Each structure stands twice: as C-alpha cells, then as structure tokens.
C-alpha cells in the first residue's frame, strides 16, 4: 500500500510510522492505554501512541489521521520558536509535508482521508506563509 514513491519519501525523511502492520503498537504502556492518553485511529481503532516522525499516519493501517489542533506552526514546520528562521529549511520542510499530505495524493482514498488531507494541507500552507514573512512571523510569536 505504501510502496513506490510515497513509501520511499517516508523512509528517506524518517517519517515512516513505527509499528508493524497487523500488530498493535508497543509504544504505549498499559497505564497510558487505560487512561486513553494514546489517541485511537479513526480507521482501524488501533492505538496510535507516541509516534516517531510527525504522526500523520496510523502505524497499523497507514490511514491519514486528523490534524492535531494543539500543534503550533513552529513545531509543524520543524523550526525553533524564534524570530530568526532558516527560510531554506522552511521551504524544504513545506515541500516535504506537501508531498505527504497534499489532496492530489489522496484522490483514490476514502472521503475521510480526503477531508483530513485538505485540513493538513491548509494547516501546512498557513504555517508556511506565516513563518516565511518576517512581519507575520513576529505577530504569530507575540500572539
């Protein structure tokens, strides 16, 4: 399912989710599972747990997950929370994320994943535009 170009990109950028298909993730311990600290996948119901990488995909079924509403632009774009931002690194991160979540890559997936893809893509676009311009970046920092 995640072979070819997408799988290669996930592996190169170390965004390949942890876990083995068909097995429950062992990254959540029993105490955290009991307290529901680990979010569940909307598709397979498996525990997603603290995933290496960005956590965009379920480690069991590889379904795109809903965006995290608590995540700020700096963490999404993998930048230090500072006024000074490496714009070349920012641009590369933007392109990397768009290759993962752009709606064009989800045209043959479920409507739910298409919707999540649009939301992720919108968040990535907003974060990129905000952090790229010095004025909007400064305003975002003080807000």
Verbal overview:
By secondary structure, the protein is an all-alpha fold. It is built from 6 helices and no strands. Helix 4 packs antiparallel against helix 5 and helix 5 packs across helix 6. The chain starts with a helix and ends with a helix.
Architecture blueprint of SSEs:
Elements: H1 4-12, H2 30-34, H3 73-76, H4 87-101, H5 111-132, H6 134-142
Helix pairs in contact: 4-5, 5-6
What's the short version?
This protein is mostly helical and about 140 residues long. The chain has six helices and no strands.
Task: Give a quick set of tags describing it.
single chain; mainly alpha; elongated; 143 residues
Low-confidence stretches: 8-35
Q: Give the biggest sheet.
A: none
Q: What's the β-strand tally?
A: 0
Which range best describes the helical content: under 10%, 10-25%, 25-40%, 40-55%, 55-70% or over 70%?
40-55%
Number of helices: 6
The helix/strand order is HHHHHH
Alpha-carbon distance between the two ends: 41 Å
Give the class from helix and strand content and strand pairing: mainly alpha
Shape: elongated
Question: Which percent band covers the strand fraction?
Answer: under 5%
Average predicted confidence as pLDDT: 79
User: How much is the radius of gyration in Å?
Assistant: 16 Å
């Amino acid at each position: 399912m995640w072979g070819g170009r997408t799988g290669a990109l996930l592996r190169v950028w170390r965004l390949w989710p942890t876990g083995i298909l068909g097995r429950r993730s062992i990254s959540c311990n029993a105490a955290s599972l009991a307290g529901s600290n680990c979010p569940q996948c909307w598709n397979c119901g498996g525990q997603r747990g603290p995933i290496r990488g960005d956590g965009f995909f379920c480690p069991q079924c590889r379904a795109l997950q809903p965006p995290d509403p608590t995540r700020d632009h700096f963490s999404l774009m993998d930048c230090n929370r500072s006024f000074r931002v490496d714009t070349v690194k920012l641009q590369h991160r933007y392109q990397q994320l768009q290759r993962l979540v752009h709606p064009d890559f989800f045209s043959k997936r479920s409507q739910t994943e298409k919707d999540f893809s649009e939301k992720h893509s919108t968040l990535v676009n907003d974060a990129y535009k905000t952090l790229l311009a010095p004025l909007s970046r400064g305003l975002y920092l003080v807000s």
